[in-house]
């Protein structure tokens, strides 16, 4: 069961990497043409403002998916039954880290996309804090993109360790921002410290 989850996470990450690679191969003119076509399709559509209940569920689902991706890493590197020296998996250790990076980036992008048309004042304090944390988390992960995508790095190097610490921080901050029992002052302090 655990190995199936691990393989599905790796496959998702690989698909996302292929999509990203295909996107980069387009020339500037082709990208501009695609962007223009997409914008033309959007003409006449209205801005969507989501209800509070939907926003809460969507943020919660994003947190869940990120936690599952992170759990797969934890399972893989801490399972005593896996001999990492003899491990002949098609997906290398670093590919698993890259897949987790893609999951986090995708989920944070989804949260940001859902909340982009909401002003901070139109959201309640929990969702406003989550929006700020998701934007900052996405920015931080994207700043690691080049280092994470290097094929020759080892798991346990500085970039990987920084990424894993950032994953924990993002999950912690999103969870405490969304949690009902978090005091407003604590929520504000958490966002201010993280988003400096």
Task: Note the main attributes of this structure.
single chain, 196 residues, mainly alpha, 73% helix
Low-confidence stretches: none
- The radius of gyration computed from the alpha-carbon positions, rounded to a whole number of angstroms, is 19 Å
What structural class do helix, strand and pairing data support? mainly alpha
Q: How helix-rich are the residues, as a percent range?
A: over 70%
Q: How many angstroms separate the termini?
A: 41 Å
Counting DSSP H or I runs of 4 or more residues, the number of helices is 8
* Average residue-wise pLDDT: 77
Beta-strand content estimate? under 5%
Number of domains: 1
Shape descriptor? globular
Main sheet attributes: strand count, strand direction, barrel closure: none
Total beta-strand segments:
0
> How would you spell out the order of helices and strands?
HHHHHHHH
């Amino acid at each position: 069961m655990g190995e199936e989850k691990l393989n599905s996470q790796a496959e998702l990450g690989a698909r996302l990497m292929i999509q990203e690679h295909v996107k980069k191969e387009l020339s500037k003119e082709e990208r501009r043409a695609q962007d223009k076509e997409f914008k033309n399709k959007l003409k006449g559509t209205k801005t969507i403002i989501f209800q509070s209940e939907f926003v809460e569920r969507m943020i919660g689902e994003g947190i869940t998916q990120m936690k599952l991706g992170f759990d797969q890493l934890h399972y893989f590197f801490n399972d005593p039954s896996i001999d990492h020296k003899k491990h002949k998996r098609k997906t290398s250790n670093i590919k698993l880290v890259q897949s987790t990076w893609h999951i986090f980036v995708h989920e944070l992008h989804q949260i940001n996309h859902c909340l982009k048309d909401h002003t901070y004042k139109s959201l309640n304090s929990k969702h406003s804090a989550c929006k700020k944390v998701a934007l900052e988390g996405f920015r931080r992960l994207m700043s690691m993109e080049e280092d994470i995508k290097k094929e020759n790095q080892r798991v346990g190097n500085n970039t990987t360790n920084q990424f894993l610490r950032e994953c924990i921080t993002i999950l912690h901050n999103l969870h405490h921002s969304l949690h009902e029992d978090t005091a407003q002052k604590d929520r504000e302090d958490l966002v201010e410290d993280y988003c400096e």
